[in-house]
Design brief:
about 45% strand, 3 helices, about 5% helix, Trefoil (Acidic Fibroblast Growth Factor, subunit A), 8-stranded antiparallel β-sheet, 55 strands, single chain, Tachylectin-2, Chain A, Jelly Rolls, mainly beta, 3 domains
Length: about 700
């Protein structure tokens, strides 16, 4: 594969040493801790945050507040340990609190013995806190409802099981009753659980009639009223909220968020296909809500993101007619990609939530590792050879059925996974290496047979295996994933420095077999029908070349031009009428000074735009003008929240109505402050690309 193909797929440069470097890479952000510049961090360090909250899969989020602390539970499907719990004090910077269950061992199929549970396992957990105890409720298909309880969100957890309830939510009501709502079709059933949570109360059943509702319930009682949140099933759907004065209804239903894609298209944006498929976006749907001690309300809500899986966003809630509606006043049912951090009363410096590296030296695995199904703990070790992860092979026909495959979630928008493999302990029939677990899957690794050892890359989707002779059993393996293109490149090295691609680009997908995004995986299995040898893995690293590049920058103090992503027109000053307009880039009437604006720092990621004539861009509901402030500080009308989208697009949100500066594509004329959010193809006129001006008179 030549360099030009790699560059086109990754929009990156392949350096001589084999490192992939994004063109958007910039020096470390001023004032940001070093770790926050190397790994995705939602906290921008200036009082704002940017979505996604985690740039990796985190499904079916359910948040709660306990005092001044926040907790978040998420789906883990067939992975072990099961049911991940996160902790935060500011709703933006999170850390792993632990897992509810070390081994989801509910039968042979959960261990890949005579079957498998791909697409099943832990679904949509509900986390609650009552009378000094944390509770987590989550259904396991074909097994039942698992109920975990602990005095600490870090465990240890006790567990009991009752008959299953799909996509449930639980409410500990003020009167001592414990309600459980479940199901995905109207009307819904609400049952009551007994006090020790070992079963339902006989005959205590309530019907919830809520037309237009969906699945994934989140049940609350707020100021005496009952609320239930659910998502209409699907990736291009909305979230709904129902309200009632009594658990028996009647229930009123309102749309909580509508068509908010945050500019995320329904297919990989850099793989082409024309504007049509990209207009239909992957919308916010399915998530819970939580309040702060300052009486702010926020939702943590899920959104599909293609092959990386489903990620979560933190979005503000505005109460409107006693309904919690996602969005800000003036722009309800839409959500900002960047906004002011929640007022939790706690201040913290930016910190990455997930750091995936593991050199296996500490005697414990990085807790972000999860096993694909329940592992055989006698067949892996960190102590047989200290400093490495040793995987003994067990019999399997293929990678899907290989036990003791250990996985992580990959970070986006790009990530490069590297691992050192010593295959000197392999025996005939062993296959060991680095995979992407998905459907189809792909892997690169060493294959040992009676004829010798080869290095192979298998792409199950195209039924193709690429093979080269292995001159050594000691190799370095790499997979580089770009989640803007949904392509991955597998490569290998004999020295850990110079990497050579093997095979064609692998097409990554989100699919319903595993019901997850791709998972980098270390594995070793034997195809002879018997256990084989062992493989030693070391120095697993995950590079994030775009964790903090130009897509996260604000050009404070710089003089820039702003070009519409819809039609290439430029924002300009109409000096005769003192209006902000857009003009065609090739217009003969364009004066360079009139398309240049100085970005004035107002703090908290907010800016003012100062034109070359000294006037400021000023937004009102009836248009956007150029205003002489006569030495006064910019007010709300002159203040814009700088909003960076990925892939270099920028939006400017007015503090007057929380809408965005917008042009009419292919119609030069006055600029308005009417954009409600980015279309998935980002050609609605509210997305701009900034460029530093070559010369300025400001």
């Amino acid at each position: 594969m030549n360099k030009s193909i790699l560059t086109r797929i990754f929009a990156v440069t392949l350096l001589a040493g084999g490192t992939l470097l994004s063109h958007g890479d910039t020096p470390d952000s001023p004032g940001m801790p070093p770790a926050a510049t190397k790994h995705w961090t939602a906290d921008n360090g200036n009082g704002t945050y940017s979505n996604p909250l985690f740039y990796e899969e985190f499904e079916d989020p359910d948040p709660i507040r306990v005092g001044d602390d926040y907790y978040l539970a998420s789906t883990t499907m067939h992975m072990n340990p099961a049911v991940i719990i996160m902790h935060s004090e500011d709703l933006v910077n999170w850390e792993l609190a632990g897992y509810c269950m070390d081994r989801l061992d509910l039968g042979p199929a959960f261990r890949l013995e005579g079957g498998q549970i791909y697409g099943n396992g832990i679904w949509a957990p509900c986390i609650r806190y009552h009378d000094g105890m944390f509770y987590v409720f989550c259904n396991v298909n074909r097994a039942g409802l698992q109920i975990f309880r602990s005095k600490s969100a870090s465990g240890p957890w006790q567990r009991n099981q009752i008959p299953g309830f799909h996509d449930l939510s639980v409410l500990f009501d003020d009167g001592g009753k414990i309600y459980l709502v479940y199901g995905n079709r109207n009307p819904y059933t609400i049952v009551e659980l007994n006090k020790d949570l070992t079963g339902v109360v006989p005959g205590a059943t309530h019907q919830m009639n809520a037309p237009g509702f969906g699945e994934g319930h989140h049940l609350y009682k707020i100021k005496g009223k009952y609320y239930d949140i659910s998502a209409i099933p699907g990736a291009q759907t909305d979230q709904m909220v129902a309200r009632a004065d009594s658990i028996d209804g009647p229930w009123q239903v309102e749309r909580m968020v509508q068509g908010e894609s945050l500019g995320v298209p329904s297919r990989a944006p850099l793989r082409g296909g024309g504007p049509g498929p990209n207009v239909r976006g992957l919308t916010l749907h399915q998530g819970g809500m939580v309040d702060t001690p300052s009486d702010q309300w926020w939702s943590i809500i899920m959104q599909d993101h293609g092959s990386i899986g489903r990620m979560v966003a933190l979005v503000p809630i505005t109460w409107d007619n006693d309904f919690p509606i996602i969005g800000l006043p003036g722009n309800l049912r839409k959500a900002p990609n960047t906004w002011i951090k929640p007022d939790t009363g706690y201040t913290q410096e930016p910190k990455p939530t997930f750091v995936h590296d593991d050199n296996f030296d500490g005697g414990k695995l990085n807790p972000l590792w999860q096993w694909n199904h329940v592992p055989d703990d006698t067949k892996w070790s960190l102590t047989e050879k200290p400093g490495v992860l040793r995987l003994h092979s067990l019999p399997a026909n293929d990678f899907y059925n290989a036990r003791n495959s250990i996985c992580q979630r990959p970070p986006g928008p790009e990530s490069i996974m590297n691992v050192e493999l010593d295959g000197s302990g392999l025996t005939n029939g062993d296959t060991a290496g680095l995979a992407l677990l998905s459907n189809p899957y792909a892997w690169i690794g060493l294959v040992k047979s009676a004829e010798g050892i080869t290095l192979q890359m298998l792409d199950q989707g195209v039924h193709k295996t690429n093979s080269v002779s292995a001159s050594s059993t000691h190799v370095w393996l790499r997979v580089a994933c770009n989640f803007d293109t949904d392509y991955a490149i597998f490569s290998w090295s004999a020295d850990g420095k110079q990497f050579t691609p093997l095979g064609d680009p692998y097409t990554m997908t989100f699919q319903l077999k595993t019901f997850q995004g791709v998972r980098p995986s270390l594995f070793n299995f034997n195809t002879s029908g018997q256990p084989g040898g062992y493989a030693d893995f070391d120095n697993y690293t995950v590079d994030e070349p775009r964790a903090r590049g130009i897509e996260r920058m604000i050009p404070l103090g710089k003089t820039i031009t702003l070009t519409s992503g819809a039609d290439g027109s430029l924002l300009a000053v109409d000096t005769q009428n003192m209006l902000l307009v857009n003009v065609a880039a090739d217009s003969t009437n364009v004066v360079s000074q009139n398309v240049q604006f100085q970005v004035v720092d107002l703090g908290k990621g907010r800016v003012a735009l100062k034109a070359s004539n000294g006037r400021f861009v000023s937004a009102a509901t009836d248009g956007v003008s150029l205003k002489d402030l006569a030495g006064k500080a910019p007010g709300d009308a002159e203040s814009f929240q700088w909003v960076n989208l990925m892939r270099s697009d920028t939006m400017l949100m007015s503090l007057v109505n929380h809408c965005y500066l917008a042009t009419k594509p292919n119609e030069p004329g006055p600029v308005t402050v009417s954009g409600t959010g980015p279309q998935p193809d980002r050609k609605d006129g509210s997305c701009f690309v900034w460029k530093e001006a070559q010369a300025s008179t400001l």
